[in-house]
Amino acid sequence: MNINGENDAKYLGEVISKCVTLTSLNLHLMYNYIGENGAKCLGEGISKCVTLTSLDLNLQSNSIGDNGAKYLGEGISKCVNLTSININLNDNSIGENGAKYLGEGISECVTLNSLDLDLSENNIDENGVKYLGKGIYKCVTLTSIKLNLDYNDFGENGVKYLGAEISKCVTLTSLDLNLRDSTIGLNCNRLLK
User: Fold this and answer.
1) Which residues contact 120 (CB under 8 A, 6 or more apart)?
2) Contact at 8 Å (CB) between 96 and 132?
3) Which domain holds residue 84?
4) With contact defined as beta carbons under 8 Å apart, do 46 and 80 qualify?
5) What is the C-alpha to C-alpha distance for residues 169 and 19, in angstroms, rounded to an integer?
6) Cβ 69 vs Cβ 96: under 8 Å
7) Which of 26, 45, 78, 88 could bridge to 58 as Cys pair (CB 3.0-4.6 Å)?
8) For the chain, what is the domain count?
């Protein structure tokens, strides 16, 4: 689907909100300039789909910022039956707060088995990674995590926090972690053990 801007995202969010029996939602809206308000409308629409078990959302390069991530996190938190989340927010400048909001939203999905999250190129610092890790840890049924955090600046402390939280995921059988060009320092191998 190709939409143009936040007004179209608003209408799409309204349509989604009326599909209250959806179990699977797949939206690919990259490069559509939906911004913060468009993300808000989508988050509100998603929040009405409480029967969702699978969410696949690609909003790459849409300038949603930290508030847009907040609205998406709030929407996701209402979908407590989710077992699979695949979200691409690459290049959206969500920063520390956006990562925190997403972590909080994901933490409410207590039946989650699979999490695939692309937050590359988002100016996420060590606190953002810490909050994200805390949210992931609360999903006690996770068996698979795929996390792309390349081109962020969270340093060794961020890796330490992330490693500590992921190590608590005792049901995990698959981990795919991309930290390419994220200024993690020379000691990251020790910190991830």
Assistant:
1) 90, 91, 148, 149, 150, 151, 152, 178
2) no
3) 5-192
4) no
5) 33
6) no
7) 88
8) 1
Q: What phi and psi values does residue 131 have, to the nearest 5 degrees? A: -65, -40
Query: Contact 19/47 with Cβ under 8 angstroms?
Result: no
pLDDT tens per residue across span 12-63 = 999 999 999 999 999 999 999 999 999 999 999 999 999 999 999 999 999 9
* Burial degree of 39 (CB within 10 A; 0-12, 13-18, 19+): buried
CA distance 6 to 11: 9
What is the residue type of 55? L
Q: State how far the Cα of 172 lies from the Cα of 127, in Å rounded to an integer.
A: 23
Measured from the Cβ of residue 89, the count of other Cβ atoms closer than 10 Å reads: 29
Q: Residue 180 corresponds to which amino acid?
A: R
Dist CA 118 CA 60 (whole Å): 9
Average pLDDT, the chain: 92
DSSP E strand boundaries for 64-168: 84-88, 114-118, 144-148
Q: Report the CATH number at residue 156.
A: 3.80.10.10
Name the pTM for this structure.
Answer: 0.92
Q: How far apart are CA 161 and CA 190, in angstroms?
A: 13
